[in-house]
Amino acid sequence: MLIARLIADMDGVETRLDAALEACAAADMPVALAGMLDFCGDVLQLSLPHGDASRLTAILAEHFSSADLLVADHEIEVPRLFVSDMDSTMIGQECIDELADFAGLKDRVADITERAMRGELEFESALRERVALLEGLEEGAIAQCLDERIQPVVGARTLVATLRSKGSRTVLVTGGFHHFADPVADRLGFERVVGNRLAVSGGRLTGELAGPVSDASTKLATLQEERDRLGEGTRVLATGDGANDIPMIAAADYGIAYRAKPKAREAANGRIEQGDLTNLLKLFGIPESDWIEAPPSRA
User: Which GO terms describe its molecular function (predicted)?
Assistant: First the structure.
């Protein structure tokens, strides 16, 4: 079976839905039921007895190009584990780009970041190249950057708090840095943080990393470790936007591309393109009356 849920512009929705149903039928994936989801009235749910999830995702994306959607090969349920990227997913910025601005190097660093997130550059070498450019920057610039530049995306606090209230384990895993990720996790309510560490000596960045690199393989390993700890049958939600998020997005039951680069979007079975992160709560069928606004403290 396949279940698809989407939140779309209702203008002309019947015409687009008819076209999508015809495309599904032509692909030998007839839709058995289509209707609005109880308790979340702006969520359209489609039920199919059989079919290919990636093909269904492509059909819906074609006919509802701006829709926020989720496709699963089982009845959709609230995940017991939520693993998320940080930069441009839980926060609206790329921390290393903003920090580089304090060294007058933002454009140069941001270009490398963009290419790495598109999968055009190998992640670790691109990371080390950018970190090296920060050599000599005062460590105090990190706190200033956090205070002045770094903001959660709309809905991030509510998403994390509500999922935790429903029993989900929440983990922030990033190719960025603990200097940023730890405070962000505290603000948003994540229970665990995995990331890179900037080396500091004499109050200044050395231009190197301290310890092993947190990359795409780290994100995947963290998801697998946490899922194994929670036990068989654990449904997993993973969100991200870049190429280094692809392995964990592909491994999750619910892999969500948040306003993502093309390669990450292609690997996902769900996406948030137009709405904020609370649309994920709607896609999981959590009524707004159950949403929690204030993030809980970290464990």
Answer: L-phosphoserine phosphatase activity; magnesium ion binding
Domain ranges of the chain: 1-76, 78-299
- Options 3.30.70.100, 2.60.120.650, 3.90.940.20, 3.20.20.150; CATH of 1-76: 3.30.70.100
CATH number at 78-299:
3.40.50.1000
Q: Tell whether the torsion through CA atoms of 244, 250, 256 and 262 is positive or negative.
A: positive
Question: Is 85 noted as a catalytic residue in this protein?
Answer: yes
pLDDT tens profile 111-127: 999 999 999 999 999 99
CA distance 233 to 230: 9
Q: Does the annotation mark 182 as catalytic?
A: no
Among 38, 42, 87, 107, the active-site one is: 87
Contact between 200 and 190 (Cβ < 8 Å):
no
Q: For position 298, what pLDDT does the model report?
A: 64
Reported as a single tens digit per residue, the pLDDT across 141-165 is 999 999 999 999 999 999 999 999 9
- Identity of the amino acid at 26: A
pLDDT of residue 12 exceeding 90: no
76-88 CB burial, b ≥16 within 10 A, e <16: bebbbbbbbbbbb
Active-site residue identified among 85, 97, 241, 245 = 85
